[in-house]
Amino acid sequence: SLRILWHLIQAELAALVLLAGCNLLFKRRGGIVVIHLGVGLLMFCELLVARTAVEEQMQIMEGKTVNFARDIRQVELVFEDTSDPNFVDFVAIPEELLQNESVITNEQLPFAVTPIEYLRNSTLSDKTQPNRTNPATAGVGKELIANRMRPVAGTDGGAVNVAAAYVRIAPKDNPTEGDVYMLSQLMGDGELFQGRRVDEPEKITSVDGKNYNVYLRYRRNYKPYAVTLKNVVAETYKGVPTPRDYASYITLAKEGQEPVDSKIWMNNPMRYAGETFYQQSYSRDRFGEWTTLQVVANVGWMVPYVACMIVATGMMGHFGGTLSRFLNRYYRTQDPNLPATAALPEKA
Prior knowledge:
Distance between the termini: 44 Å
Number of strands: 15
Mean pLDDT: 87
Helix content: 25-40%
Radius of gyration: 30 Å
Largest sheet: 6 strands, antiparallel
Oligomer: single chain
Strand content: 35-45%
Number of helices: 6
Number of domains: 3
């Protein structure tokens, strides 16, 4: 809070200098110019945020530790090499490539991946659906089928898309000959959508004998720190189960630095290393209590405050100048002998 106050004081000093310069250049219109400059800065901030701001979510179960955040607006197809029990190596294919039915190869993967069908939003049902062919030839897709659903809109009350995809995994030298797998976020993000303790990947064995876990899930951005949820508290309104307040007690640990203990609750975020952690939601399932933290990286988070200070200074400058000229004319009409540049009479 004190840091924000100090930034606001600096912004006000800069706004006063800007007002003085505009008064010298534009005379009585200086305040209006400053107002427009503040509004222009606010519009520039919106463009900056749209282009650079990153919003992610951390879902943490009480007592657990995570070192990544999810971007729930993007999906990725992940191949996780499980051959080394002490080290996990994975390759992530972005959503953009899954929307194109072209062969995908990577030097770290011993096989080729070809998207057959991508469903931005879907639901799973039994494969015995009438008039519906099942493209899957291996894996869980032999028992379940993915059905296309209307993509979620912004007016759907906070609902999110649940993606699914049919992909062919085949040798690189013959990418058209291989098994087709059905992959769904209901398994890849099972702990989010189905209240499971862990996600349930599709398991495959490649031509070189290595075992891979395959996930279709929200894109994960791994952090240089880890967050442990020590306790999460939800206060409800009396007599109803509706939560009134959430609070998360966390420990943030980064290698080579002292752990940081913090409390995050509604309208009281934590700022760390250029990121802001907001308390977003709370949930409970059969495994325990969960908290959802919104993690925002926004380099222009102070710009709206600065813009508002500039606009307020411009309004006060314009109002002060207009009031001064009005009072000057008023007193000259009361006493015609006063010169046009005379000072205002002091009150008795």
